[in-house]
Amino acid sequence: MQIEVEKIIVDLIRKYLVLPENYGFDANGNEIPTVVIRGQNVKLFNTPNLQITVSTISTNTFANRCEHFERYENNELVYYERVCLNEQRQMQVDVYSKNNEARQRFWEVQASLTSTYSQQLQDKYQFRISKMSNTFNTSGLEGGSDINRFTIRFNCLSWHEKVMPIDYYDTFRTQASTETNQFADFTIKDNIVTNN
Fold this sequence. Notes:
The chain is α+β, with helices and mostly antiparallel strands. The chain has two domains: about 5-55 and about 85-155; about 170-195, no CATH class. It contains three helices and ten strands. The radius of gyration is 26 Å and the shape is elongated.
């Protein structure tokens, strides 16, 4: 993936629910967010309006592989490794408000997951969002603060790739031995064996 799954989902929800980037700033100069990635030291509940956070709850890796390839760059053969990781993520979206918006609009977040814009983002970034989700009314978690809160959980299938140059050794020392003793010590260079 070229971009974090959380950022894609933040963009999806903001555009589908037609929310602004933010509601402005509070008296202390803190941004009043609409849709953000959870856990970025962003202050919430500084508005009665709808606020939404997106986070990854857990990941389950089902493929983790390393491949090697080579290519010529500036008339020199360069060796690379490509590490690929496929995973299933459980995502969580929390919809909050001090007014009734969270209770009235949380279903729109679920609907956004199957929207045309969602499909376009999935095709562009090559990942998949599950069409099925679970929603919980978690309003009581905030105690007496009287905040409406709905938690939506769903799965995503995503992949990651990292390509890095690696060293290639064409000369190395080795030994040949039996169970009882060593009988040869030699160097291999350019596929030629040389005695030491």
